[in-house]
Specification:
Layout lengths: L1 H27 L5 H16 L6 H32 L3 H6 L1 H12 L2 H22 L6 H20 L6 H17 L8 H27 L9 H28 L3
Helix pairs in contact: 1-2, 1-6, 2-3, 2-8, 3-5, 3-6, 7-8, 8-9, 9-10
Length: about 260
């Protein structure tokens, strides 16, 4: 038990260091990947904490991480769209979105969710040690395994639904994949299943990007030149995503609990 308790604490500390570094990169405007890297670190933190959400010591930190995730998501979506527009040579459309990006960065840096998360990260080690000392962390392996098994079963059931919702499946795939990365020894997923999770997430992510962009094009006139290509890509993405999900469903059927 002490081993797992220490591992979780060390992992959170490593993520905290990366989050601080990403914040400083955003402040200094040193590169175009700062927000992306911040969201990766945030995703890793949320994936580490989600199986522990029943523990009082993790509640506040998990909620703060979720709030910052919701706040930073649309800004990252805008970054991805702007990068796509530049690659397509649509410089005017890309440049017109630069002020919104810069404002978004400033608002994120000054936001309550970011400040609250950084404070919660400072407070969390003491709360975690107190939880360990009081015996609240007994059965930690069992708790994590139970949560990961539930996530696996939830995804397997959703894959069998003939009227499946790609949006929901995308979230379930991401949740299980990242949880397995956070706890590789407890996830009980063979390497083939992990690879298929990655492939399904990639296909669903591509489909989701084009779906979002088409929605934006309904109200942003300068995106209209992209619409035919996006519609074709959306259709291809649906087909590729469904093939990836079928392969994942077959893998789960072979390795059912």
């Amino acid at each position: 038990m002490p081993g797992m308790v220490d591992e979780v604490q060390q992992h959170v500390l490593r993520i905290q260091v990366r989050l601080f570094a990403c914040r400083e990169r955003l402040v200094a405007v040193t590169d175009d990947e700062a927000l992306h890297d911040l969201r990766i670190a945030l995703r890793q933190l949320r994936s580490l904490l989600r199986p522990l959400c029943a523990l009082e010591a993790c509640t506040d930190l998990q909620q703060c991480a979720a709030q910052l995730g919701r706040l930073s998501g649309p800004l990252r979506d805008l970054e991805v769209l702007q990068a796509y527009l530049r690659l397509q040579g649509l410089d005017r459309a890309a440049q017109s979105r630069q002020p919104a990006l810069e404002q978004g960065y400033a608002e994120l840096l000054a936001s309550a969710p970011l400040a609250q998360l950084l404070r919660a990260l400072d407070d969390w080690p003491q709360e975690w040690r107190e939880a360990a000392s009081s015996g609240q962390l007994r059965g930690l392996h069992k708790l994590i395994r139970k949560r990961l098994r539930k996530d696996r079963q939830r995804l397997a059931q959703a894959l069998l639904d003939p009227a499946h919702d790609r949006h929901r499946l995308r979230l379930l795939v991401k949740r299980l994949r990242y949880a397995a990365e956070a706890y590789p020894q407890l996830a009980e997923l063979p390497g083939r299943a992990r690879q298929q999770l990655k492939q399904a997430q990639s296909a669903l992510g591509d489909w989701h990007d084009h779906w979002q962009w088409l929605l934006r094009a309904e109200t942003e006139a300068d995106l209209q030149p992209c619409v035919p290509a996006w519609r074709a890509a959306l259709q291809r993405g649906e087909q590729q995503a469904d093939l990836a999900l079928q392969a994942l469903a077959s893998e789960f059927a072979r390795n059912h609990d």
